[in-house]
Amino acid sequence: MTTTARDTVLGRIRDALALAPADEVTIPREYRTGRTLPITDRIALLTDRLVDYKAEVHTCPAAGTAEAIATVLRDHGARRIGVPPGLDPSWLTAYDGEVRHDSADVPAAELDALDGVVTASAVTCAETGTIFLDAAPDQGRRALTLVPDLHVCVVDASTIEPGVPETVARLTPTRPTTLISGPSATSDIELERVEGVHGPRTLIVLIRTDA
Questions:
Q1: Is the pLDDT of residue 78 over 90?
Q2: 54-77 in b/e burial notation, b at 16+ Cβ within 10 A?
Q3: Half-sphere exposure of 63 toward its Cβ, with a 13 Å CA cutoff?
Q4: Count of Cβ atoms closer than 10 Å to residue 86 Cβ
Q5: Alpha-carbon torsion angle 200, 204, 205, 209, nearest 10
Q6: 146, 15 Cβ separation under 8 angstroms
Q7: Beta-bridge mates of residue 178
Q8: pTM of the predicted model, to two decimals?
Q9: Can you give the pLDDT at residue 30?
């Protein structure tokens, strides 16, 4: 009788299941939760982490969002940008370039031809400097934020949480989630940093405050 690799794998799974305890196992989850931190400290910590990751960070009052977005796009020479279908249109009123609204039928080649993309965000962890996108209408599909070489991500200060447990608690588990910690970067076999391999080479974070 010939045994295939599939048979071997399934056999090992059956053996492991046979050794599993009959009673339900309780997994301890006594990690720290409910951490609080003043909003100014959260912004400062997040900024420190993002700058360390080589992201560009700016703060602006909520009323100045459109001007801040237009300024960073102009400074980076972005004349043709993509945006998710649900992005707040008031955020683009100061931008005088071409705006392409994304949809599922836009091929990757067209996304690659864009100078950049502007999105909102779901929640952000200050402690790790990680921005979470959950494919909401103002954030769009994953391809939109991975293919263009420039990503301008707007983070509302009210969505910045101190640590990981507090951040995860605000996410919806059934939504597709993308985690962003700085521009895309990796190292080759000689430990030389290479940017832009798995996503945008340039990440600009605009933190909107109430001030």
A1: yes
A2: ebbbebbeeebbbebbbbbbeebe
A3: 2
A4: 14
A5: -150
A6: no
A7: 133
A8: 0.82
A9: 77
SS3 171: coil
Q: And the tokens for 88?
A: 């707040």
**What's the DSSP call for residue 176?**
-
Whole-angstrom distance, CA of residue 170 vs CA of residue 177: 12
On the CB side of 101, CA atoms within 13 Å amount to 8
In 3D space, the residue among 160, 125, 143 whose CA is nearest the CA of residue 84 turns out to be: 143
For 168-190, what is each residue's pLDDT tens digit? Answer: 999 999 999 999 998 877 776 77
Query: In this structure, what token pair is assigned to residue 12?
Result: 């090992």
Residues 56/203, Cβ–Cβ less than 8 Å: yes
Instruction: Using alpha carbons, select from 139, 146, 129 the residue that is nearest to residue 54.
Output: 129
Q: How far is CA 11 from the centre of its chain?
A: 40
Tell me what the pLDDT averaged over the chain comes to.
92
Measured at the alpha carbon of residue 126, what is the angle toward residues 159 and 208, in degrees to the nearest 5? 45
